[in-house]
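Q: Could you fold this chain for me?
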Amino acid sequence: MKKICFWLLAGGVGISAINLGWSADAPEAVEVNVINHEFSPSVIHLKAGVETPIIVHNQDLLPIEFESTELSREVVVVGHRTAHFTLGPVEAGEYHFFNDLNHSMKGTIVVTKDAGGK
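A: Sure. Below is the predicted structure, expressed as structure tokens.
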């Protein structure tokens, strides 16, 4: 995996490299919206073995807690706010997520070798 580095002139004395952790082959972020007490999309597709950024936009007034017990992930998203986190690397399979503050809100994370469902 190639890392993108930014070079900065450090006070005219020398040059420093800062690795921001971005990669030319890093996956795009997966965005999930919370609208009218539902996850949209309710099925998320990820590529196995890759760390993937997840962005959850809570467009409702009430807070939600994006939780997956299988992936050991809990993220609270206040109403009308956005949360950013990463998932992975994860093995191929099917994982579930839900709103721990409203268990009727559910979704599925499908992890495959190519992230396209194959």
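A (continued): Residues 1-20 have pLDDT under 50 and may be disordered.
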